[in-house]
Structure prediction request, 136 residues.
Amino acid sequence: MRVELVPLNTIHLIWDQVEDYFQKVIDKSVGEYNIEQLKAHVVAGMQTLYIAINKEGVIKGGAIVNFINYPNFRVAFITATGGNMIINNDTWNNLANLLKQAGATRCHACASEAATRLYKSKIGFKKIYNTVERIL
Prediction:
């Protein structure tokens, strides 16, 4: 599969094809946002949408990335991924090259234990933090 960046001016043309992938992610989240709010972040350019397309031109997955600038590196933080986005090294390498083109030097993701195992086994991520929360 090839991975493509979705330009802001075409998000409305493909959103219906990826919305279900991201709804499944939101259903498992702690409620940071709903699907409409996630789309609004992407459309406003606050987050970036990438899609995985098979040989027949069908969208098979997607990833939404938030870029964070730190003093020592620029992180591509994957906020949502769905479908067959991170299925193998080829798809990951396509995405990684696009993230590098956007200036990223590292890629992070917040993931469940099951997704963490997938990131580790399929594409070589390593666990660097545990995320904790307390509602204020």
